[in-house]
Amino acid sequence: MNPFLEKYNGYLAGVMQWDDLSALWQRIREQHDKAWYVYAVGDSVPEQVATQSQLFKFMDSMDELLRREHEQDYCGIVYVDDVTNPALVKIYDPNNLGVVCGFSENPPLPGWVMSLNPPVDLERAFPPAANRKRWWQKIFS
Prior knowledge:
With 141 residues, the chain is of the alpha+beta class.
């Protein structure tokens, strides 16, 4: 299996508290030897890792966006494969959550993914369910 998809589909811990999110950003900042891909799902899959400046700007901007638009006193929409040594971070868009936590046959795609492995096009890897396509096609046939 593709290393990115293996991490993406593997166990991920929820970053539940805002302080935990701050700690995650700090851990990533301190790991100077790691090169991160920053992927906005729906945009082109990045072929190059982010520069340190781009990575830090992304984390700062994302932190601001999440705290402003996720109107909860907890985080709960960021998931990480390993809180002490992260290699993959899923960040859900606060304005498109669907069923993020709990069990779902077709969970929504995250808005953004940070990964040490080169990402793949998630919209291609996880296309909408066939019954949703059929429903959509019936409307316009």
